[in-house]
Amino acid sequence: MIIVSLRQSKIGSFRKIFMKALDLYSRIEPLIGFYDEYEKLYAHYLEELSHFKLKTILDVGCGNGAMLMHLSKYYDAKGIDISPNMVEIASKKGVDASCRSIEEVNGKFDAILAVSDVLNYLDISSLQSFLKAVERLLENGGLFLCDINTLFGFEEVTAGSMSVDEGEQFLSIEADFNDDVLVTQIIFFEKNGEFYTKESAEILQYYYLIDEIKSLTNLTLLDVKEISLFDEESDKNMLIFQKR
User: Does the domain at residues 154-204 carry the CATH identifier 3.40.50.1000?
Assistant: First the structure.
């Protein structure tokens, strides 16, 4: 799932750009694929969650609802995403998904998840706000699980280019990683009658050290798990926090 960076002081002015990129991604996701890799990532989360007694879970950035479907088999699981298109796709799978940001959520949860490098799409200000919302929503003793890209993941896996030509649809992605920021340019052509329509978006992703994230929250870091989805070397780290 792709989230464009929002700076707290400009949330209103960036909202349309934010939604445009998310909705574009919901349309090109089938062309990108990587569903097997995502399922492998979901399995890591489900394994970690199985070690704890949990009832209620919030999946932040639930995207197409694939992880939420797994969670709903074992827990009272709800999902949120700020892309209306993604929420529509997820809801059709029968899961409890709603269109809102984590700052708009009320209630308490035994665990909160941010799957598939959600945190990397937030700049430092937005990340701090996000983590404060997580703290507010967690029960005492509750867990926060997330994964972030490693430096190897950015330099050797995410950065680069790809294109997909399906005749009536053409997708081009160029991603450059410099100064700890990944800038991804997406261009999508789709045939509409006799002509092609063009859509584009720019997405930013930030590299964070584990200690940087740890310093932004009062949650206690319980463990770090290395995950390898695309190579033998770890391209993600799963962080397991607890509210004490």
Answer: no
